[in-house]
Give the backbone structure.
Amino acid sequence: MTEHMEPIRVGLLGLGIVGGGTFNVLARNAEEIARRAGRRIVVTKVGERDVARARARVGNDVAIEADAFAVVRDPDIDIVVELIGGVTVARELVREAIAHGKHVVTANKALLAMHGNEIFAAAREKGVMVAFEAAVAGGVPIIKAIREGLTANRIEWVAGIINGTTNYILSEMRNRGLPFQEVLAEAQRLGYAEADPTFDIEGVDAAHKLTLLASMAFGIPVQFSRAHIEGITGLSGVDIKHAETLGYRIKLLGITRRRPDGIELRVHPTLVPADRLIANVEGAMNAILVHGDAVGPTLYYGQGAGEEPTASAVVADLVDVTRLDTADPNHRVPHLAFQPEALADLPILDIGDVRSSYYLRLLVADQPGVMADIARILADNGISINAMIQSPDAGEDSADIIFLTHEAVERDVDRAIELMQQLDTVRSDVVRLRMEHLA
């Protein structure tokens, strides 16, 4: 079959790390890929401003355009692979590719988290596909798993380590007892963190990915602007140590959960019991736990970034699109797993309405009655204490006290913290971290 069919022609936009990796994997595994796809998949044109660098990378058989728009408008191109990133030019290129009737494969999580609804609608109108496996967790096929593998399930929740940079930093802080800034500088030196690491360390990158996972898990439009986002910049080594003593690890998690009144969508440092598999994911690796009503918890683990792991996902998408190129558009897998007209209008919950367990650390005067005051404030706000430890090394007339609570509503916890900070005996801001048991 592969002998007689025309190859599918790919226009590759961006020849950076992932673009170069994609080109290599397609070339190296060409025969295997053709056996799976039913026809050959060939990069015939590359859009890259640095033409000389591109020529050195792809040789003489591939046309190179300094203007990416020339690639998306080329009538001979069947699929456009967008790997330039960002949300301005990339958005125009993707919309233009769709307008010209081309399928799109992209690794651009920011673009889809912010503009996915309009992009998917445009693609539907033109009968083309937008595939984005590489946009979440690099080489881990999490999108295919949620969209196809778990179709039978009502998904209850998804929780994931979906940013390798922050997981690497937290792993190093815990293993070596080093402060955040020192580990960040080292991560930049080793290439695990960007020169400008803001998107990673502030949790924005994880929130882009989580937005897409939530849409596919619950059949809702993408709503990045409703996500609650906290990064790891304010996380103290002291709390990492205390968490360890209590049997927990701190991970930056993206969590999305179905509640009776709406969907939780949040990224923040989270205490997870140390015996959970996900708590033991170290370094720059990614892991996503998905809980379905029929299947129970399933865990997906692997490299969430890097040249060939991400290229693996891009090429898998190219194969999928090639297989389905001639299929009736109405019989393809929907972009967000649910039929577009069946997307639900479920609200994304405000962070104050979220239910979680909490870790609270207070520096208090070491004198009688303090504990009673704090316990009363917690009880008055409907928060019950699960465990408490006192840390002796806070100074001679002070003590660090740590409370772990049972599940509570965040708004109640906020009110309790406010009241605790008004006590004369509480000597610093209360540190509050969320805890998830992921059982």
Q: What stands out?
A: The mean pLDDT is 93. The CA atoms of residues 285 and 303 lie 5 Å apart. The chain has three domains: 8-139+308-342, 142-301, 351-435. The longest strand covers residues 248-259.
